[in-house]
Structures are given as C-alpha cells and as structure tokens.
Amino acid sequence: DDYDNNNDKNAAILQPQELSNALWSFATLQEPFSRSDLAVRHMTRNVSRYTSQGLSNCLWSLAVLNHAPSNTEMECLLQEATLKLLLESSSSSSSSFQNNQEVINLLWSLAVLNYSGGGSSSRDNLTAIRPFLQQVQQRFSNNPDCFDVVELKQLHQVFLWLTSPREEEEEQQQHKKLSEEDDDEDELLLQQLQPLLERCRHEFEIVQTQNTSRFQTDVVKTLQSLGYYSVKEEQICSETGYSIDIL
Predict the structure, then answer these.
(1) Are 34 and 65 in contact (CB under 8 A)?
(2) pTM (2 decimals)?
(3) Which of 53, 152, 193, 242 gives a 20 to 30 Å CA spacing to 7?
(4) How far apart are CA 58 and CA 157, in angstroms?
(5) pLDDT digits (tens, 9 = 90+) for 145-179
(6) Residue 111: CB partners within 8 Å, gap ≥ 6?
(7) CA pair distance 163, 142, nearest whole angstrom
(8) Are 27 and 65 spatial neighbours (Cβ–Cβ below 8 Å)?
C-alpha cells in the first residue's frame, strides 16, 4: 500500500525481490492479493531490475492468483524475460537454461493466463511463446531426462493449451494473413516438440491414475455390486490425458 503510482521514489525503495517474494507467498497460500494491479505496474516500470527468475516467479504467482496483466504489460514483461533467459542460455556451458523451472513456470503461467500476444487462435499462442518453446525443445534434445515429473506435467498442460481449438478459429484463420516464413517455422517447431509432447502425456497419465481415493474405490465397488458392471474407474480421456474418476 505504500507504493504510490506517481512517486518514483517509492518504486525505487520497493525491491523486485521483495515484491516477487510477496506475490509468491500469496499465491502459495492461495490468498487473494488486492494490489495485483499495482504489483504489475511496478514490474513494468522497473522491468530491467528484475531477474529472469523474478519475472518467472511473479508471472506464476499472477497466474495462480488469476490476475492477467494487459497485453501491453505482458509484452513488456515477456520481452525482458526473453532477453534475459536467452542471454543466460548463451552464456551457459549447457547452451540452455540453467534452471528449467524458470522457463516452465513462465510457459505454464502464459497458458493459465491464456496469453496470445493479442491474437485469439492457437497459432497466435504458439507464435507468442516460440522463443521459450525453442529453448525447451533444445534442452530436451540434448538430454531427454532433463525434466522431472512435475515439470513434464506442467508442460503437458501448456501443450493442451497450445493445441486446444478456439471458438471460430477456422473462420479467423481464413481472414488472417500469416507469412510463409512464420508458418513454416511454427510447423517445424511443432514437429520437433512431438517427442517431448508424447513424453509429457505419458508421465501425466501415470500420475493421474495414482491419485485414486479409498472412497472412490468403494463407490465403484458398490455400483458394481448393484449390477452396474460397466462402471469403470480412472478412465483416461483420450483428448486431454486427464482421468475421469468414475465412468
């Protein structure tokens, strides 16, 4: 509350790490944060002072808190995040991100916030986050075991967002002119990501079937004892990989 929109001195006093920690705490506790708009304003005004991890953590927190920055604000934050993550990648001996969770949290946040760079189709989503996906694909190509189960689950949700149909998308695509270069680059990236997509789906389905409760099992047994023999438990949805508790 001490941050005044018209006072740069207060903006300088509030350190990016402090704001990042505060947002993270509220998100982790799932407590509403009434000043999310001021937090985003501070981030965009002082974006150069934030580390890539700070930006990633802040965007993850905003996604959990269900507060979506405007397209202009998001473009500002993503431009800085892209620059810093790519610089870290080029200076790393592994030629990729030293911290997988940073970029995956960022991708997951953009999926939850449904960011598409001002567009409204799945292709717009892909184009908006292409630099981050390229780095993820490169890291996976270098080491197929570089991501843990939690990260693979997050990436699966990102891929669902990228591939899910949008309302009136076909009609919109008929009127939208994409350059052949961008179109070819996106198609190539999707092909390169296919092995990772399949790995994420596989790990996601395994985790889904490991969370069966005792109560759920008892309900299924009761229904079957009543003659409902076709009742099944933990059926995987063929489209999403999510499990249906009882079908």
Answers:
(1) no
(2) 0.73
(3) 53
(4) 19
(5) 989 998 999 999 998 888 776 544 444 444 444 44
(6) 125, 157, 158, 160, 161, 162
(7) 25
(8) yes
